[in-house]
Please model this.
Amino acid sequence: MLHVGFDGIGYQSGLAVSDDLLHWKRAGLIFPRDPSSKVFRYNAALSCILHDAELGSACELQKVDGRYVGVWQAYPSPGYEEGAALMGLAWSDDFRHWERGDVILEPDPGAEWEAGGLYKPYLIKVGDTFFLYYNAKDKGARWHEQSGVATSKDLKTWTRCRGNPILRNGPADSRDARFASNPWVVRAGSQWAMYYFGLPNAGHACDLLALGSDPFHFEKVPEVIVEVGPPGSVDETHAHKPALMTWQGDLYHFYCAVSGKWPNERRGITVARSRPWS
Model:
């Protein structure tokens, strides 16, 4: 499991390992900030490794030219996600040592929906094409986030979808009126499923779902996939930022659980499962 931590300066990325998906041990820092780098001097968030995108899979990792490939994002200023993030690739043979590549995607100032900056990348391969999903924000003081995609044949030249953002904010009273973010896309038979989180204009973030017949077009379903928990639970404030895999016939839905109120909130990673817990 990749995970990012914020220490008051910015993000760095670690690795955790588990035998059962429930009990995790930290394996150490694998993608630290680099004070000598203009890009990574404050933030280094390794957010995704290329993997099998079938819904029933265990997210088996895939290699390109014999190596694993990950996607990072880096914010330019100290603090919590301060400034407009950039995205790039990183390469590894063992998950613990990463060679950092150049920037492949930065905010498009001509696209209002993403002019304020990019957020979490998610990389999959469909046929001979790589799909890089991401969410982004506008430049509003109380900004909105929506989700789009860029594609590439060679991981070097990227083309944004003309239909971006492919997942837009809902109406003012909807659960994703302000944020429709962090897309996690899988193929489910003849359908495509985009798990994402929504944030309303007032209230709590939760994980939602949109379905489509191809990896570019999605229609939202009305049901909440993972709702916030009752008062006193680990996810009483927010249950958001999905990551999914299937193991031993069960679908595991990992997400960021938030309890309490800012600035004294607590954040961690938890999991929901398709089969009830015994």
